[in-house]
Fold:
Amino acid sequence: MPPGPPFPEHLHNKTVTGAVASYTGPLDKAEAAFKPLRDFGPPLFSLMGPMPFPALNSMFDPLLPAGLQNYWKADFVKELSDPVIEAHVKYGPGVPTFNTAVHIYPISGAAHRVKSDETAFSYRDANFVHVLAAIYPNPADTPKNREWVRQYYEALHPHSAGGAYVNFMMEEGQERVIASYRDNYVRLAALKKKYDPDNLFRVNQNIKPPA
Structure:
């Protein structure tokens, strides 16, 4: 828990789990939609309420000022199976800084209503993506933060659907990029060869133009 407002002082620097949710339907139905989250636990505290969508998108910006160090890994999974949950229970409480987070995003709804070959995004059959994001201020702390992420990832990866969401990946090699696009990679590489044969746009999870 970050050591500052709007978080309650007695929870500062405590390790907690948070649920971030957004309901974009009619306002008079929002309370019923959120009732299970409000009742579960109950939560340590709640900041749920009507807000502009840009406010939701920027809510965590103060926790991530420029200049922080980052080391991330991610995976798609088909289900939150017992071994996956056990790995999160074992490693999640060891987050090394209050900036560090383990995100578990559901993939459902509209994402499942599109076929895997209709866009570049292939993992329409996955149900969750988990992201292990070590974020810390001191570069000298890189080894211990990186080791925490790697051990966590090694416990989760055997249960992976195969790839990851590319925005959540570090430099992990071309095979990892191919695994994240699956059968769509060949088609994307052909487009890359047509529009960027010299690989000018390569500062990303790069799709290399075929030789």
